[in-house]
Each structure stands twice: as C-alpha cells, then as structure tokens.
From TrEMBL:
The keyword Signal applies. Residues 48-227 form the Peptidase S1 domain. Its EC number is 3.4.21.-. Residues 1-19 form the signal peptide. One of its GO terms (molecular function) is hydrolase activity. Transmembrane segments: none annotated. This is Trypsin-like serine peptidase. Pfam families: Trypsin. The keyword Hydrolase applies. Keywords: Hydrolase, Signal. It is an enzyme of class 3 (hydrolase). InterPro entries: Glutamyl_endopeptidase, Peptidase_S1_PA, Peptidase_S1_PA_chymotrypsin, Trypsin_dom.
Amino acid sequence: MKRLLILIILNLTFTNIYSQNCVLDSNNREEITQALNENNFIAHIEIYRNRGRKFDATVSFISPNVIVGAGHSFRERWYSKIDSMKIFIGQRSNETGENVFIAKHTFKRKDIKTWVHKKFQRWGNPDFDFAIIALNKNVVNQYFELAKFSEIKDDIELVTINGYPGDKGNIELWTKSSLTENVNEKENVLLYDMFTSKGDSGAPVWSEKNGTYQLIGIHGTGHYRNGSCNGAVKLTDAYIDFFEGFINDTKIE
C-alpha cells in the first residue's frame, strides 16, 4: 500500500511540471501524398506484444539500421514483451488514395536491440519518453542528422512533425508545422502547439536547414502534462553523444 501511494504521488508530480497556453487545432495539419525526401527517414511501425496485441506508432531513422521512437511504444514489462514488429518505411496514401510505402520489413524480438531511458522505464517520467532501437540489418540509406534546437533555432523558421495519427487510420502520413518562435524550450523537452493523435507517438520533431533534415526531438505525449500542450524529448549534447555511440556500437558493415 505504501509503495502504491508513492507511485501515485510520483505520477502526479510528473504530470503537472510544465504548462503552456496553446490551442491545438486538429485542422491545422496536412496529409502527405507525394514522395518527399523526408518520407525516406520516417516509418509507420506495428509492434506486436504478448498474445498478438498490436501497437501502432511512428519512428524515424538516424542511421541505416537505427531508429528512435517513443519510450512508451517500446517499454517492456514482465507481462508485456515485444514479440515482433513490422516497419513500413515512407508509408503514405498517394494522390489516388492507394496505400504505398518504400519498403516493408519484419523483425522478431531476437533481431532488435532496444534501449529505453531508465527514468521512463521505471517511473514513466515523460521528460524521458524515448527509445532507441538497433535492427539486425541495414534498411535505409537516408536518415536524419542530429541537432540541438538551441543551436539552430535562429536559422530556421519552422519546426515540423510527420507522423501516422490514429484518427487517420495509422497508415496516412500527416505533417504539421509551428513557427520556431512558438516552440517553448524547457530543460528536457520542447513544447509546441501542433495537434497530434495516438499513433504519432515517436514521430520526429525536425527542421530543414540548407537542404539538410535535422532531428531535434522525439514526440512523446499526445497532450503534454496537463492537456494544454504537446511535447517532445529534446535532443541534448548528452543524448546526441549517446545516440552516436549506440550507432557506432551496433553498426553493420
């Protein structure tokens, strides 16, 4: 009972740390039906757990065989283990409504190496709601570069999220953007006024600079903290160093 009370207190503590006044408009987004460069870095993922339960999410590539996504998509418990997952790279509906993708890959649990931040794995702290996953083969040749929002914000106008929202069936790729000045940077997170839905979990928060696509955050919760905003784990020096080390350790020649 005492342990349960502690967990409830911690959950309430982590639920109301930040707030930001913003209005989330579900109409302020656009479906992507054309083949764009950034589509190649993004994928719809179906994660299958015990007894065949399916979980839909969005991931993005940061190397030929490494993806990043939301921690709550990949966190495992003794009662909920990942059995397999299917990755649909660049999935979208084209101009005629046909569902297409660049490539499809299936991975068993033994084929992946997953790391979830311990502060999310243990306590569910949304400030650390991200995961990095290595696949046992190279599947793309294009991927996001890693960048810090604080270092590029003066050189960019827009911050964008591309994902596969559940209210659109998880198979349509939708994009939404916010002016850089409307993105609120906190110690561990970025807060913004872009609408998302279940299925956008793990979607890349990115920007384009001089023709380069840069990942600056990983979308976590649908309505951040107290329901007033959306948020992402932001890339910091420590995370970028860790990601690069993880990429090098799991690199496939």
